């Protein structure tokens, strides 16, 4: 059973998943910091620091905190917009790198044109015929 567990843990899929979760949580911290420390204060300046968390309604003995729900939705939308912008920038950056790589590959292909065997054979025949004509003309 221990050997089977070691085999399971050593599989590439488990390690890849673990790395993905760790990087995902780190990226989540970056996005959260971006939203909390940069975008939320800017939006607060624009909209006058609106905070919905204090909104509630009391029915008999129950207090319904609908403002906290609205604030959570608002925070989600800000986070989603920030994440969209970050992913858009990363995709643009990766696209530009990919284009640069393709241009370099294309340049290398142009610099070293390879001749087909047929062309090489025809050139050899041409050269032999030229040499024969030179020999007859002398």
Summarize the structure.
The chain has 138 residues and is mainly α. 81% of the residues lie in helices and 4% in strands.
Q: Can you give a write-up of this model?
A:
Helices cover 81% and strands 4% of the residues. It has helices spanning 2-10, 12-47, 66-111, 117-137; strands spanning 57-59, 62-64. The chain starts with a helix and ends with a helix. It has 138 residues and is mainly alpha-helical. A hairpin with a 2-residue loop joins strand 1 and strand 2 (62-64). The mean pLDDT is 81. It is built from four helices and two strands; from the N terminus they run H-H-E-E-H-H.
Estimated helix fraction: over 70%
Structural class, by secondary structure, is: mainly alpha
Question: Overall mean pLDDT score?
Answer: 81
Number of strands: 2
Low-confidence parts:
none
Q: Summarize the main sheet.
A: 2 strands, antiparallel
- Order of the strands making up the biggest sheet: 1-2
Task: Report, as a whole number of angstroms, the end-to-end distance.
Answer: 90 Å
Count of helices? 4
Q: Report Rg.
A: 34 Å
Element order, helices and strands? HHEEHH
Q: What overall geometry do the principal axes of the alpha carbons give?
A: elongated
Strand percent estimate = under 5%
